[in-house]
Amino acid sequence: MKEINVGLLGFGTVGSGVVRIFHRNCALIEKRLGATLKLAKIVDLDIERDRGVAVDSAILTTDAAQVVDNPDIDIVIELIGGYEPARELVLRALRNGKPVVTANKALLALHGEEIYTEAAANDVDILFEAAVGGGIPVITSIKENLSANKFSSALGILNGTCNYILTRMTDEGEEFADMLKEAQEKGFAEADPAFDVDGIDAAHKLAILISLCFGTKIDFEDIYIEGISHLSSVDISFAGQFGYKIKLLAIGKITGGAVEARVHPTMIPIAHPLADVDGVFNAVRLKGDFVGPVILTGKGAGMDATASAVVGDVISSARDLLAGSKMRTSPLGYRTEALEKLPVKAITDLWGPYYLRFLIVDRPGVLGRISTILGNHDISISSMIQMSRSFKDAAPVVLTTHEALEANIRSALYEIDLLEEVCHPSLFIRIENEME
Ligand code: HSE
User: Fold this and answer.
1) Which domains, and CATH codes, for the chain?
2) Ligand 1, residues 196, 304, 310: which to mutate, most atoms within 8 A of Cβ?
3) pLDDT for 359-376, tens place per residue?
4) CB 3.0 to 4.6 Å from 184: which of 6, 46, 189, 371, for a disulfide?
């Protein structure tokens, strides 16, 4: 049987998962592919550490050239992560005519254009299913199965660490810092956990999704990003009383010819299809003009689920090689020259309902002053809860609004925070009521 030689760059958690699949499902893959996938080289700076998987020491090397410049290597897997040397090695492998499979969302979100252009110039695959949603086949679904559709939105729970933390805060009333520590111990978190909790990792994945869904180039800096570290269990409990759950959502939409590209904590109705996506699970809800809403869910992080997507891409690429075509589908599923550059909507132009929280000294007239300021900014209250005084004379007041302009919400909160009865900066959370 024909052998296809695979070179792996990066022998960390996901790399070890890849090796496990090569070992355990080798015969099954042969039956499906009609060829043998052979892990011919593994490159890492540390080739001594025991990863708990058996590997022939002869294939281990610290020299990346033995993969990217080696004529015997047919397909390269990049699992180094980060920008350099991953970027340089991926470009070199593509220039050498080798298809590349990567899970590196940060690299693609910031340097995607350069990498896709190099792949197209050399007519080779660059596949990245594992970069968004771990084991969930979202990228191939958009590029292949759903490619008859014009998409109007892509909504995702795209960071397993944040979803794990928010789930534990919701279910157990735990606080943020303790849950972050727990998620890190479980091995989902990025090397720098700020990437997770500040929403950056989800934004990297959103940048990729937006290009795939809407055929537009997007500058990473144009994505509005807000993390979860300012949320407290109090907000989660109030959200529940209003009939909502809080999720870190990555939202891509086309409205009025512009792209909405934003990552932030979002209140969604308890009956929303994404509300029960808990723990390390991720989900993406796509809306196409012919197919309608489609929800894909599964494990969004972790060794095995991510390795499953990586090896799936290796098998696809091997099929292309066997069919004599190194690039059957363009990287983003669009002809490169057909990609547009649509305008990105400013977050202050967002129109929707909001949750507001104030911590106020409970004096006669203070609620009236707050509602007057809201009214002056065209903000109408939908429902309100005032708690009994809990700290000195202070009491939290929380409310939800009807649809309002975010610029007005921000100006109103600025004015409200100047009132002498307001003893803590007020907070707002966007609400997404649309269920379909
Ligand atoms: N740190 C990421 C997460 C890993 O928590 O989802 C998968 O990209």
Assistant:
1) 3-134+303-338 (3.40.50.720), 139-299 (3.30.360.10), 348-431 (3.30.70.260)
2) 196
3) 999 888 999 999 999 999
4) 189
